[in-house]
Amino acid sequence: MPEYQLYCMAQSGNAYRAALMLNLIGADWKPVWVDFFNGETRTAAYRDAVNEMGEVPVLVHGAKKLTQSAVILSYLARRSGKFLPDGEDEELEALRWMIFDNQKVNGFLGPFRFLKNFAKPAGDPAVMAFLKGRIDGSLVIVNKRLSARDYLVARRPTVADVSLTAYLYYPANEFGFDIARDYPAIGAWMTRMKALPGWKHPYELMPGYPFGTRG
Known about the structure:
Glutathione S-transferase Yfyf (Class Pi), Chain A, domain 2, Glutaredoxin, alpha+beta
């Protein structure tokens, strides 16, 4: 049996962070498909046995069962010694950007994409406009940061950069705008991350794509 199991699905950027991290560190792992769109995460069985929060990703490592992508990334970085911030200042800076990302960048991109592509009925135009405004404001901040440096925190990628990947590589037509084109510094960073050994697109790395197919 592989050392790690990751409960995930191809459409989840939060799960992608964890799956990508496992691949980037060269971990021995396998995905466990979660049928989110048919309600698996809302069942008592899933919440009792897998994750009481009713979410993906969930990382299983021996007797440990970890949820929340930031926790998973930090755990894997510490175990592998890869993508770790160096010292307290970098650690705090990485945490600062991971929180900003989870709340303001991918924290808005995820709901926007879900409401546009998967929700029935689709998101209310006023809600979509609000989310798009927040997305644009946050991406401007990240783009400015990456205009002056190759990675968010250090001269090398850290867990903060892996966190930021969450929804950025999904097709532009799923958003209705092209992040890499509209924000050139982010686009250049995406190219650098894509060049890392072990990088894979979310639809190649996790089961459940095309949409509606089984894992």
